[in-house]
Each structure stands twice: as C-alpha cells, then as structure tokens.
Amino acid sequence: MATSPFPATSRNPRSIASSSFASDLGSLGSGSLHLAARLLLVRRPSSHPSGRGGVRSLSVKNVAGKQREYKEPATYEGAENSLGSFAPDSDSVASSIKYHAEFTPSFSPEPFSLPKAYFATAESVRDFLIKNWNATYAYYEKLNAKQAYYLSMEFLQGRALLNAIGNLELSGPYAEALKKLGHSLEDVASQEPDAALGNGGLGRLASCFLDSLATLNYPAWGYGLRYRYGLFKQIITKDGQEEVAENWLEMGNPWEIVRNDVSYPVKFYGKVTKGSDGKTQWVGGQDIVATAYDVPIPGYKTRTTINLRLWSTKVPSEEFDLASFNAGDHPKATEALKEAEKICYVLYPGDESLEGKTLRLKQQYTLCSASLQDIIARYESRSGNVVKWEDFPEKVAVQMNDTHPTLCIPELMRILMDVKGLSWEEAWSITQRTVAYTNHTVLPEALEKWSLDLMQKLLPRHVQIIKQIDEELVHIIINEFGTEDLELLEEKLKQMRILDNFELPPSALELLVTEEESPAVESVEEVAVSEEEAEPAGEAGDEDKAEEAAAVTEPKKKVVTFAPDPNQPRLVRMANLSVVSGHAVNGVAAIHTEIVKDEVFNDFYKLWPEKFQNKTNGVTPRRWLQFCNPDLSQIITKWIGTDDWVINTEKLAQLQKFADNEDLQAEWREAKRRSKAKVAALIKEKTGYIVSPDAMFDVQIKRIHEYKRQLLNILGIVYRYKKMKEMSPAERKERVVPRVCIFGGKAFATYVQAKRIVKFITDVGATVNHDPEIGDLLKVVFVPDYNVSVAEVLIPGSELSQHISTAGMEASGTSNMKFAMNGCVLIGTLDGANVEIREEVGEENFFLFGARAHEIAGLRKERAEGKFVADPRFEEVKAFVRSGVFGHYNYDDLMGSLEGNEGYGQADYFLVGKDFPDYIECQDKVDEAYKNQKKWTKMSILNTAGSHKFSSDRTIHEYAKDIWELQPVTLPEP
C-alpha cells in the first residue's frame, strides 16, 4: 500500500485500505506533502515565546465572539502562503481531489462517478478558499478597517466551481487533474446545481458586486437568506408554466460552511413594556434562532476572499414539545419548529393571503435582525474594551439592496436604544450616517407598502420607532411648506409621509390650529366692564358676563386634522422610510435616476438634493465574458495584447481600431459560430427542438413581466410568421432571413397574465416549429427553468438581444450589458441602461424604436380619452391569434388586455399596440443589416468595445467612494 501523506494515527488504516483510491493516494504527488495537509497545517514562527517550532492548526475564532485575539496569517515552513506564489501542479490537485473523495464523503466509496467527482473537486477548491478566507478575515480584524455590508433578499450566484478556479487561476491544473482521474472539467462542473438564492437582475447584480468587491480588495460582506427550495423550478408543459420546488440542497452544498456558533435570536409578536430601569423592552411573543451559513467569495488574481453570510432559521431544542409528541399530538409538538423553518423555505412566497404576507415580512425582518446583530457584535469585538458608538458609521456601512431590507433601519434603532442604552438622538444620528438605499424600480407595486396593522402585530416595537420617525418627518414637511396653503400641505403629507392614511401625531395637530375671524369691534374697552360698574362677586349675571367678554376677546379656533379615509388600509411605505433614514439614495441608470429625482421621490429630492446619486449598474467581466466565453476572450486578449482587460475593462475600447480588420472579423465570426453550436445543443437537450446555427439567434431572456414586453416580441414573431405563410416558397427563400427566436424567464407563480404570455410563446413555438413550409427559416424556442447557467450558454451565442421594455419602466437592466459585452447587437427602447449602452457602442450599432419616457404619460392619457387608433398591422396580428391557428386555448384575456380605453387588465397600459408598428419596421432593419455579415460583425465588435464602461468594478469603485467612504485593503504578501 502506498504511504499515506497523513500520520498513521490521523486516520484508520483499514478505512484507507478499503478504498480503491488508497492504493495510489499519494502517488500523484510523490515526495510532496499532500495539498490538503498543506492547507491545514502551519508552522509556528521561530520567535514564538516557547522557543519551539512545531505544527499547529490554523483557526479563526467565532466571528461573533466578544473576545477575539488577532493572529498573524500563518505559514507553513517550506511552502509559500500565497496562492499567487504557491501554484499547485495537476498531480497535487488530483491528489487533493482523491483525498476528498475518500475522507470527505458524500457518496458511497465506489465508483468515482461524476456527482462524486464534482463534490470532491469542489471541496478541494474550497481548501484554497478557506486558506485565503481566513487570512482575509484575520487581516481585516487586525486593521479594524471600515467595512461595507450588502443586505439583499437575493444573491443569484450561479455555479461556483468554474468561477472559483478561474479566479484562483487554477483552471489548467484542475482540468489536467480531472483528465487523469477519468473526467473532464466541463462534465464535472455541469453536475453543480445553480444555487437557488435569487430570481432575476436584483440578485445577479448583488452577486456581481460581491465578485467585484473581492477582486478590488474592498472589505465587505454580503448578507442574505438560505432558501431551501428557492423561488421554484420551472417546468414547461402543454398547459404552460408549472412550478415545483428547487432541489439544489438535496445533495448538500460543498461551498457553504455552517457556523453553529454564530446564531442570533429573532423575535416576532409579543408586546412592548417599560422595565424597572425605565428602558423599553420587547417581551413575549415567538422566538426563533437564525444560524449563519458562510460562503466564500474569491477575488480575481488576489488573495482577498470575502464572505456571503446566509441565515437559516430554526428553534432551540427546548421548543420541541416532547410531551405532546409522546401523547400522539405530533402537529402540536412540531408547530414551533415548522413555523421557524418555513421562513427560509421559499424566496418570495405568494402574498395573496394574510399568511403569505406575514411570511414575507418575517423573512425580511429575519434578514435585517440577524445581520444587524452580527454587524454590531463584530463592531464591539473589534472595538475591544471601549466601544464608541458615535464612531460606528466610521467603521460600518450598510447598503440596502432595494426596499426588502428596510427594516434594518428600525432594527438598528431598536438595538442601539433598547439594548445598548443610547438616546433617540444618538441612535438616529448613527443610523442616518450608516444606512444607504439603492432604488431598483419605478413600478408602484415594487415600492413596498406593508399593512400597518400586520406590522403592529408582528413587530410592535418597530412600529413605535417608525411612528416616531414619521412624526419627525411630519414636522419637517410642515416647516418646509407652512400652514397657509392647507391643500398643498395635505397633498405633500400624503405623498411624503412614511405612514400612509394614518392620523397626524398630536404634536403636529397643534401646529395646524387656525383662528376663525372674530366679529368686528372698535376696541376691547367698549365691551369690557369697569370695576366700578361690575356687580359684586357672586351676584347674578357675573358668569354670563365673563363668558361674553371672553367670547369677544378670544377668537374661535379651528382644528385641522387631515383625517384618514376609514375605507382605505393604513400602510407603511418602506421606500419613503428608506429615503428619509438613509444618507444616500441612488438610482441604477442615468435615466432611472432622473425619474427617481423628477417623479418617484421628487419632493424628497427638493428637500435633500445632496442625498440623491446615480450609480449605473455593472456586471463582472470575469463570469460574463472571460469564463463563459473563453473563445472570444482569447481573441480579445490576442488583439489587445494583454488580458488586463479582465479587470481594467476600459482596455476593451481598443477593439474599436480593429473593427474593420478582416482577420479579426473572421476569428470573431468563428468564435460566435462555436458558441451558437453550444446553444443549439442546449436547446435540443432542454426542449427537443433542432435549430440551425446558420440562422440568426435572437434572444430575450429575463423575468416574464408585462412591462418587459415579451408579448410585443412574440406578437412580432407571429406577424413575421403570418407574412411568411403568405409568401411563395421562392419569395421566402429570397426575402426571409432565418431566425431562431429564443425566450427564457420565469413568471411569478401567482402572476396570471405573465403565465398566459409563457403559454402563448410555447403554443406559437409548437405551431411554427412543426410547419414544414417554414422549416429552418423560423424557430421559436422557450428554454425552461432559465437561470445563470443557462444564461452563460445563451449569451455568448446570441446575435440579437431584445431589451424592449416600455420606456421609463426598466430601472437599468444588466442582461443588456452582458449581451453587449459578448458582441451581441441590441434592439430596444430608450429605457434603463439602454440609453448609456447606445451612447457607448454608437447609435448606428443599436436598433432603436418606440416611444420615449417623457411621452408615456401623454400616450396613456390619449388612450384613456379614446383617441388612440391602432395600426392595421396590430389589428391584423391580434385577429390572426384569435383565429385559433396556435391551438384551442382561449387567448381573449391576453388579447383583451391590449384593448379598450380604461379598466384593470385593459387599455394596453404598457403600450404594446403603440410601439408595435415601429417595432416591426425596426426588425426589418435588423434583417437588412444581418444580410451584410461584414457590417454585422463590425457592429458586434463595437458592442464589445463599447461595453467597457459597464463593469461592476467601475460601479463598486463609485459606491465605495461616494456612498461608503471605503478604502481597499490589500492583504500583505506572506
């Protein structure tokens, strides 16, 4: 038997011998210490007080502990501590993988299957990450540097394996090692399920930000929830979209490490009382525990590895009712357990019911409470014996990713006042200087409003705090607008208050008392009674005269209340709370920020213009170009002359000078062709449809929503199909540019209209794709269960990408940036980041159509007044749909939403009919451009060149400078 790289006492020899791996466990790394052992063993510095050398294990104490001792990053004698200088070869990597297959088993000993290979490989990579992770954390502890904390309900991570080894620059050794072990790296990586922690752009942005924060060496953490079943797994059937629970955690997650020693109590319900010491206390109610699961986030070409901390919920064991269980009342015995666990079951549980709303609010508060408690514990630990709360904002920055984490505002106030003993003024000052808010939407339904009654029941202490914040805001509003014009004041209070449809606080009512005009009198003396004429006290008429005199001398008072409407619900407006309480508010694209300032929060902008900023979104070029599109990345590096563009994306602009070069264009087209072949293989695997890589690949992948207008896209396809059917075979061959129209995205489970759109797309595809007259000239494909991994295949192979939302409704978008970065030409409206992308890539390299944002309100008014006249082509395509050509499903509700002048679900609120003629004419221009492949390839190259400003690295630099006041911290060389 080969010698084990571990001491004989460390493992049972029989266990080692029992595996087929044991016979050659050390042979691949002959003569060297096993890689896993290298990562776990360190050498005492020679200056150690004991005067002895020796080996100890690297450990970092509980990050939430009160007493924490800093230890210098440890090193191993004879091996460098930096992965930059210690580059393992394929033999040592293979040995590490075999070690984990043997000693970190998630599967049976035999055979070395692909799933087993994936877990062993991931655990091997994790060894590297833990080494850097611990060193990063220890160095941050030593420096006590200011740290940013990014709170988000979503982190759409995607697969981690290829990203991690790419960032560690170990792709080559791992590919070679797995080849020696009988598998390819690509096949092994394909075994990894996408982490079901997000839904769309909001979560993907958060993940891109974490990648950039680590790459740029900014001290930061992410905080989220560990959803057991994710949003849902989408299945496409003959009935459209169906939802089943995600199973991403069923086999375990090798990237996470549970921190059983890092947990915090989270309370719901109960009541608020005053203690004997006069302090406010929140007592009683339902108590759960949030436990930390940590995921390492490596930076690119840096040792910095930051943390994504996810919370999972449970109850203490004493909450299990053993007596009830033994008595046979099992539901009662496990009730507390189920109530706690279900908080982290599903991302965005349906909120049509009161139970659903309650669960969503519990999720949001769990994220905020556990995260804030953790942040404060870490601040106290770093502060040592003397905690200066006034310095808290100098060491902590909390960024709220949309309104979901808004409860961290009253939660931070509660902890500072009720637990730490600070005054309201002190806590409020600290909170305002710590918290900042990113707005991601202008849609009213996405600007969260919670029932005040529900929140009062679930979080009574927080409602008290919110009411006091609202009261101070009311005074600011009254002071700003005065009391002379009460109609104006009432309007501003309705727009700006945090509490909607709620009575004014007593302190504000006192300011709104007005005087009614008194009867005119010449002077007070004329009605006053002289002392000589006055009747003696107690005589009849004395009281009457006194009242008469008072009535004359004192004017009557009129009380203004602005009474709430008893027929409307009382609500808490989370966006207003975020704007009032944070020191910065940012939009995520230039046009979006202007809408935020001019429309959504205009009154707040006028009051505090210095708060409002723009931070256009960005995407990481590592995952979204270098790793997902290696062929194109190699071409870019070759022509630019360096791979430095992976971090310094402004160097992509150098491609502009080569855009007409025929050699580059030939290489570019070949890379795109190879990517299209991968898309065709994915489509066949997922749907069974066979598509031709010779056709144009036209892609729209994003959350299914009416404002994103997948309906406009599919109606355009239907119109194209109808016109093709009207042509002769010769006309079709001569005039039609072949297209594969690809859709992907999830409709929220309770969003009926969005699910109708999915059904319609799949029905159109089922008809078109089996029409022998059309053949490969047109295919319509809906790729099920769209996620990051699917996007990583579709985006490199796309040639035209659709970003066609109703102008003014898409905050930014990030998929548009990913497509442009991969040399895809965009068709779209002037909405979100489309505006800035078009400016960078050049107007001639972007297909623009549709109404502008400033026109939308007028167009809707025109519709409401019955003045809109639909284009005949739009009427033609609706009639074609209703003719039954796409099956027997009744599409009256879907088509009806595009008709009428007013009413819920009607009147074409998203202006599909208005933009339809412009859209199909723009598609004709796309066809003409695609016929000239030299021109199209140049457009493609210039899109990649123009994407240089849309890296999340640039966005993070701006956040760090303008909002967080954060400095990068580079780990020293070992």
From TrEMBL:
It catalyses: [(1->4)-alpha-D-glucosyl](n) + phosphate = [(1->4)-alpha-D-glucosyl](n-1) + alpha-D-glucose 1-phosphate. Residues 522-553 are annotated as: Disordered. One of its GO terms (molecular function) is glycogen phosphorylase activity. PROSITE patterns: PHOSPHORYLASE (PS00102). Its EC number is 2.4.1.1. Its cofactor is pyridoxal 5'-phosphate. It comes from the Eukaryota. The modification N6-(pyridoxal phosphate)lysine is found at residue 818. Its main location: plastid. CDD domains: GT35_Glycogen_Phosphorylase. Residues 522-546 have a biased composition (Acidic residues). Keywords: Allosteric enzyme, Carbohydrate metabolism, Chloroplast, Glycosyltransferase, Plastid, Pyridoxal phosphate, Transferase, Transit peptide. Coiled coil: none annotated. Gene3D superfamilies: Glycogen Phosphorylase B. InterPro entries: Glycg_phsphrylas, Glyco_trans_35, Pyridoxal_P_attach_site. GO terms for biological process: glycogen catabolic process. It is found in: Plastid, Chloroplast. One of its GO terms (cellular component) is chloroplast. PANTHER family: ALPHA-1,4 GLUCAN PHOSPHORYLASE L-2 ISOZYME, CHLOROPLASTIC_AMYLOPLASTIC, GLYCOGEN PHOSPHORYLASE. Allosteric enzyme that catalyzes the rate-limiting step in glycogen catabolism, the phosphorolytic cleavage of glycogen to produce glucose-1-phosphate, and plays a central role in maintaining cellular and organismal glucose homeostasis. NCBIfam families: P_ylase. Belongs to the glycogen phosphorylase family. This is Alpha-1,4 glucan phosphorylase. It comes from Kalanchoe fedtschenkoi. The lineage of its organism: Eukaryota, Viridiplantae, Streptophyta, Embryophyta, Tracheophyta.
